[in-house]
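User: Quick sanity check before I run a bigger batch. Here is a single chain. Can you write out its predicted 3D structure?
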Amino acid sequence: MFLAVRAARRRGVSAVPETQDPHVTQPSSVKFVYDFTEGNKELKDLLGGKGANLAEMTNLGLPVPPGFTITTEACKVYLESGTEPAALRAEVSEHLDALEQQMGKKLGQADDPLLVSVRSGAKFSMPGMMDTVLNIGLSDASVSGLAAQAGDERFAWDSYRRLIQMFGKTVLGVDGELFEEALEEAKQAKGVRVDIELDAADLKSLVAHFKDIVSKETGRDFPQEPREQMDLAVRAVFDSWNTDRAKLYRRQERIPGDLGTAVNVCSMVFGNLGPDSGTGVAFTRDPASGHQGVYGDYLQNAQGEDVVAGIRNTVPLADLENIDKASYDELMQIMETLETHYKDLCDIEFTIERGKLWMLQTRVGKRTAGAAFRIATQLVDQGLIDEAEALQRVNGAQLAQLMFPRFDLGAKSETIGRGIAASPGAAVGKAVFDSYTAVKWSRSGEKVILIRRETNPDDLNGMIAAEGILTSRGGKTSHAAVVARGMGKTCVCGAEELEVDTKARRMTTQEGTVIEEGDVVSIDGSTGKVYAGEVPVVPSPVVEYFEGRMHAGAEDADELVKAVHRIMAYADRVRRLRVRANADNAEDAARARRFGAQGIGLCRTEHMFLGERREMVERLILADTETDRDAALSQLLPLQRADFIELFESMDGLPVTVRLLDPPLHEFLPDITELSVRVALAEARKDANENDLRLLQAVHKLHEQNPMLGLRGVRLGLVIPGLFAMQVRAIAEAAAERKNAKGDPRAEIMIPLVGTVQELEIVREEAEQVIAEVEKAHGVSLKLTLGTMIELPRAALTAGQIAESADFFSFGTNDLTQTVWGFSRDDVEASFFTAYLEKGIFGVSPFETIDKDGVGSLVRNAAAAGRATRPDLKLGVCGEHGGDPESVHFFHEAGLDYVSCSPFRIPVARLEAGRAAAESKGSDSR
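Assistant: Done. Predicted structure follows.
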């Protein structure tokens, strides 16, 4: 039980206490099974997305096959204890009895069997990541009864072989390739290409082969008792929540690991009953572009898994109008009903059984970033949602995707094929033909394109590692397409003219061109085109818009740009957080301002000491006398002043936070090993350079075991007389010159790495004296503020004291994360972070998204303590978390005034600041 408790704690869920038996103490009031007629779409936490939406469609009177849902609570008990709740079997029996009475037949009875599907259904869509088993109830005893009932022997044996194949792989753990190879052998023996060309006798023989595989691989016969099949399938679905691929997908999509999955038991309807039957997936709008129309795939004489797996190429949904107009018309009406009801793009699974349409699933569909923005504004124009809701329908990660470059269509390129544009983007990389190679090469720094005939859930690792995915089979609803769209990966599917040979690790075009593994290919997820070699890229129109090179109001403006403009304008109107830029020079500052920056939150002055100025810093470090030191500082002063003049001009009228010199001085000196070797060789030749000898002495003197916790930041200003005074003077003189030129400089001076208020008091006193001298000399009044960077735990813990001498705090969350966790970022990310992510210790790197419980707690407490001392204290953040979508929401909630990030992240931060404000307002109103 200890292991179960520990595992549960690791997942972040409450484990059953060691003294508590879940089978005995489970309250009788807990309900573990709901009929489809009992739920609704608001019960996703309990019924999962699939179950809640099946219930909602049932409530709407749509044609849903009868069934019931086993709740996520039952799954949680199972995952925590290893056994289903004691009450579950009785509840399932009760609902199964009711289903049998409604259908007029019993599960797996010999003469007229009821068959059911057992399908997973978590709160959040995880396409293909968890398990499904169809045709449960079939056995040696009932297959003939099904054949007689349907009047189609081939159909019955086809359904039986599907059950053994799915059950064997999913429930019994048999290698799925064994079944695939047996199926291929059967087709080859018959001389056919697709499985629908196998007749009843072929399939009957295949069933016998499949059963032999199960027996040989598992040591037991395929179970013939229908209820045993169903119970084992339910347990397999529960287990699939914690498969490696499911956990990987949750990490990728940031889905909590403690939610569990519901299980849906649904009476079977059959799309494999002949040409008047089929199965398909439909979207109420194009998930790739957002355009309205008829989008989806249909496959005659097939079951649902055939479409998703992409093993046979589908026909466009529009073709259904010619195949079965009555079903098509009914489907179009249902799609309109669902989109209006859900007020969003809906993803729908359906089956037609001999001309009768059945709805098997609906959910709010995954979409590309561009489609998300277009659809949000379209729904506003249709009056289905308001602007606040439209803002919640998009996110910063999607906006970041839209800012990636795209292919230059005017460049010379060699088109070698074309498929279905499943997920947009411009991806270039070396061709690889399996997920293992994709991951291996990617970790070595190679960019790769994963090429497969079709993908399956086991390919998830490779899909994540690849720049893009290319398949020769499948459509917009195949596994590759759905998962790629969810991840924002470029994807081209169904490129039939390209022959993919994964065993030989090559792809061959119709013209005979061979692409071997390692050859560079380019895929365009917006057009579906595949190119040999590398195609040049051009800036995204969204970036051109943000840089002012494209006007959203122009008649010829890109439709996507117009949608982005509308949503960004609303986000800017409602957000409370201001957004600044991390910029160290006038060029970056100007770009940041074009992107919407409202000032500079971090100018790192150490970046101004690189290049030719490095020698000046060396002279400062090597100075033995006060005269030499003053001479070195006097050389640096005019250069620093010129830097700040340019910066203040670029950001005129907006605040500019200048951080005084922060890194350890050894960073400006030669590497100790290289210099030692150089001096040793020179001494051996007896031509040692005096400057090198002095430099080596200085390097040895300044060498530290852990320089990031050594002589840096405010400590430099206190140890090297005149250093900070020089920088403050340069800032003040630049501001004075700008003000005398009728400008509006708004400089803020930030002292880094303060751990105690006494450090800040000493530097502040010196700085105020310098500023007063400059004001008197230039005849101006400068309103320069002085504050500090809160980047040490002690500073956060004593923020109330430090605020007595600070006009503002800027949280340096990069260093604060390092010092709170005891991590050296440069080392740990490459050494053990991957293991921490895989083991679930991290949901995401704390350097990527702020650690709310640890680092975030210090930020909250420091902000509150600082404002308790000084109510008008300005609070900002300038670590990389300032541009992370999830972290921006945290900073909004914590009451900060602004976030600061790199120029290209500014639009993302603006959007997320607006979303955070709208979300808070919505929560308050509720």
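The CA atoms of residues 571 and 914 lie 4 Å apart.

User: Great, the batch can go ahead then.
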